[in-house]
Amino acid sequence: MNIATSRKLKQLLYIVAKSAPFKPNINKIAEMTEVHRNQIKDYLYYMERAGLIIQLKNDAGGLGSLGKVEKIYLQNPNLIYCLANNNTDTGNLRETFFINQMGVNHKLLASGKADFSIDKYTFEVGGKNKTKKQISGADNAFVVKDDIEFGSKNVIPLWAFGLNY
Q1: Strand pairing category for 108-110 and 69-74
Q2: What are the tens digits of pLDDT across the range 33-42?
Q3: Residue 97 belongs to what H/E stretch?
Q4: Which of 87, 104, 107, 164 lies at a CB distance of 3.0 to 4.6 Å from 18, suitable for a disulfide?
């Protein structure tokens, strides 16, 4: 580890922080940071082990999903404010909060239909105007809404997931 490497890591964290949410393209990241693509995977692995990021894998199962990262989130929404300053995205903040809180006791996967999958449950995270359209037809599916005080049926307020920690 040297000063140049730490600058590249900070640059990589900034890219993740300002994205909404960050869907990794290793070649593009390597080009932006001027780092070899193999090193980018190493950097992401080490940052995840250090508790700076969370790599969300898909729920395809089998050998096809090994190593396939769908999205990358900062581990804590507060890091977004520290790194991205005024370039924060509300949707990214919501999803980062959800994955931060639920990741403590559960293994989260990317869902093909919504944002997240935990065991047999599917979650779509959004603002107070988020509809159930995306999860229609899915069993055990929930809409997690920000800016609401209470939920009903399969709508849960985002703040309630803060109680999981």
Answers
A1: unpaired
A2: 888 888 888 8
A3: helix 90-102
A4: 87
Determine the Cα–Cα distance for residues 111 and 145; give it in Å rounded to an integer.
17
Residue pair 55/44 in contact by the 8 Å Cβ criterion: yes
Non-local CB neighbours of 31 within 8 Å, separated by 6+ positions: none
Q: 3-state SS of the chain: helix, strand, coil percent to 5?
A: 45, 20, 35
Domains of the chain: 1-76 (1.10.10.10), 89-165 (no CATH)
Cβ atoms within 10 Å of 77's Cβ, excluding its own: 20
- Nearest CA to 8 out of 31, 24, 27, 20 is that of 31
Predicted TM-score (pTM) of this structure: 0.86
The CA distance from 157 to 80, in Å, is 21
Query: For the segment 110-160, what is each residue's pLDDT rounded down to a tens digit?
Result: 888 888 999 899 999 999 998 888 888 888 999 999 999 999 999 999 999
Burial status of residue 93 (CB atoms within 10 A of its CB: 0-12, 13-18, 19 or more):
buried
Rounded Cα distance between 15 and 118, Å, is 27
Residues 145 and 151: beta-carbon distance below 8 Å: yes
Q: Which residue has the tokens 């209470």?
A: 150
Q: Which residue is listed with tokens 């995306």? A: 134
